[in-house]
Every structure is written in C-alpha cells, then in structure tokens.
Amino acid sequence: MNNAIFEQDAVVLAFLLIILAAVLYTANSPLPFFRKFYQVVPPILLCYFLPGILNTAGVISGDNSAVYTVASQFLLPASLILLIMGVDLKEIWKLRKKAGLMFIAAALGIVIGGPLAVIIGKALLPGVIVGGEGEDASWRGLGTVAASWTGGSANMAAMYEVFKPSARLYSGMIALDVLISNIWLATLLYGVHKKKKINQWLRADDGDTAGLEQQFKNTNTVERRMATMPEMMLILAVGLGATGLAHLLIGKIVPWIKAVAPQLARFNLTNEFLWLIILTTTFGVLLSFTRARNLERIGSTTVGNVFLYILIASIGMKMNILNVFDTPGLIVIGFIWIAIHAVVIFLVARMFKISYFFLAVASEASVGGVPTASAVAAGFSPALVPVAVLLSVMGYAVGNYAGYICGMLMQWVC
Predict the structure, then answer these.
(1) Which of 36, 102, 242, 297 is the most exposed place for a label (fewest CB within 10 A)?
(2) Which residues cross the membrane (predicted)?
(3) How far apart are CA 22 and CA 34, in angstroms?
C-alpha cells in the first residue's frame, strides 16, 4: 500500500499499541458483553487481524513501515530470551517426541499437498489454474511457496534462485504465501480458543502441556511481585543486551562462513535471521541455568509477552486481504494445498492421540516460522514458546530440501 493515510512509523506504532491495549483490556473486562464476545473471538486473533484491516483499508502501510523490522529484529529475539530463560527446560525436553512427530507430519503435508493440489486444480479447471511455459510455468512459483511453507522466507528466496520463476509469477507467489499463511494462522489461533473440543476429537491426552502451563501459572501467581525501577532496567538489559550481542556476533559469524565455507548456504547457515534465532535461543537456554531465571518472579515474562504481542500486531499489519485478486487461479491451488496439509496433520494427531498444541505449533513452524509459531505457542502459554522456536529452526534446516522435492513433484504433475 503506497499511499496510506498514516505513514509515519511513530503513528503506526501508536495504532498498534492502541489496538493491543483495547483488545487486552476489554478481554479482561467483567462486563457481560465482552465476556460473551471473547468466548467466541479469541483476543490474540483480534490483535493479529485488526491491524490487517487497517492495512487493507489504507489507513496504515505494513509494507512501508519499519515497525515490523524493528519488532522482528529486536523485540522478537529479546522476547525469546526473556521467555525461554524463565521456563523449566527439563519439562520442555519431555515434549520432544510428540513435537518431532508432528513436525514431520506438517512438512509431509506440504510436500505431498503441493502436487495433489495441482492435480485437483487441473481437474476442477483444466488449463486455467496451472500452466505456463518457461519461467512463467506455475510449478516454478509454487516450488518457492513449498520452501516457504516448510521453512521460511529465506528458504523461499533460495528456491527462487533454483527454480527461476519470472518476476511477475514470483510476485504472485509472495501474495499467495502471505494471504494463505495469514488465513491459516488466524485459523490456528481461533483453534486455540477451542482446544478442549479439538483435543476431545483428537482423543489426545493434554496432560504434559497442561502440567507445564499450570507450573507456569503457579509461578506467576505465587512468587511474582512488581519489579522496581532498577530491576525493570535489568530485565530490559538482559533481553535487549543479549539481542545486541547476538547481532554483534552475527556480523562476525556470517561473513566468516561465506568466506570459509560458502557451501553451507544450502543449509541456510549464511542467513542472518536464522543465526539471530539460534543465538538468542541459546542465550535464553544458558540464562535459564543461572540466577537470571529468578527475573521471571518480577515480570521478565510479562515484558517478553509485551514484545511478542507487538510483534503479533506488526505481523498482522502486513496482511492485505485484497491480494486474493492478484492471482485467483493459483490462490485456489493455495487453499487446496493448505487444506491437504490440514487433513494430514489432523489425521496424524488423531492416530497418535497428540494434542492440538503440538499440531498447531508444528504446522505454524512450517508454514509461518519463528514469529508466528511463537505467537501460536503463546496463545497456549508463554512457557511453551521454546517448543515453537525449536521446531521453527528445524524448519529452516529442511526447507530447501522439502521445497525442492515438492517443486519437482509439481513439475511432474503440471
């Protein structure tokens, strides 16, 4: 959106904070109207969706604003540090088997879903939905989306260099990626609100995650107190200071890898954002074994959640609902594709009696990446964010391979 009414970043940030304050305040209101309203509409969904409406209406511009850049480069890493250092990582480790199985199912749902979606699309509208020749061949663009939905934007960019779609086609793929992934994120966030009913259908025992959530709640309610001014500054120094250290190290690590071992680019190890997540996650883990973990008692997780919710709003701000009209044929493929992905992960979860938490976080770790997967996990409990981070980092590692295989399969069926 090039001609938004309000383009100054300070004004855009003000809009996002007003939305967050209004939603979270009314979500905790005792008034009957709000209590009934939020029984139907999850607060976190509104925090995500309302900025998207403002962007679509041209009130603000997600594309031209630096708010998301700041949120993803500074607030997200700091949030991860503050949230991870305050949890019991031994309990998190117990969840690894279910998380790993759902991660495999989520990636598989994308890899097999792409070619199946093409086959179904060709049957529904032969010669209309997919086609093209040379650099305009649909499979070239869809292959980049496959990499994004099994890894992230860095994987999508990598497969762009492999499949070489035309600029016009790739632009449409970016719109498809953003639109479908945003709708899927909204669906998963809404499902958090209905997790008990979903878990009943999945026949899932949610005792492990529920126990961790309860542990987190008990820590908050029993041991917590308001931080003093020096203590709050200490919390900010730990979160943002460690983030600054990560950026400093990235400036040394990435150029060194490019010079010494450029072949590691195939594993995305020359991607700065991947290293930002790896380093800040590592810092959070290390701090959890020190006295810094005691900062959770005075509100470090609250600060981390504030940063995370600003990120959620800034992600929503980049959504433009009208993009659906840019490539209507391939958008149909996208909806069929994500539906197949959904069928696969729900069937696997039901077969192995795995809770909705693992399903939702593993799916978003594939389709969205660290920021949105963390947002989904936070919808369950901030104590569970480390699981989302771990799965997302795994996605970055396999995204290029999964995207390439899926692209080749789609070329074969096109």
Answers:
(1) 36
(2) 12-28, 40-60, 66-87, 99-120, 169-192, 233-253, 273-290, 302-322, 328-349, 356-377, 383-402
(3) 11
List, in order, residues 6 or more apart from 357 with CB less than 8 Å away. 195, 206, 209, 377, 380, 384
Token pair listed for 74: 């500074």
Q: Is residue 25 included in any domain, yes or no?
A: no
Q: Helix crossing, 272-287 with 76-84: angle to 10°? A: 30
In a domain, 99, yes or no: yes
**Model pLDDT for residues 177-227, shown as the tens digit of each residue:** 878 888 899 899 999 888 889 999 998 876 667 666 665 555 555 456 788
* 210, part of any domain: yes
The parent domain of residue 164 ranges over 66-413
What does the alpha-carbon distance between residue 279 and residue 281 come to, in Å, rounded to a whole number?
A: 5
12 in a structural domain: no
Contact of 142 with 333, CB cutoff 8 Å: yes
Cα–Cα distance for residue pair 403/400, rounded to 1 Å: 5
- 19-38, pLDDT tens digit by residue? 999 999 998 898 999 988 88
Output the DSSP codes for 321-384. Answer: GGGGGTSHHHHHHHHHHHHHHHHHHHHHHHHHT--HHHHHHHHHHHHT-HHHHHHHHHHH-GGG
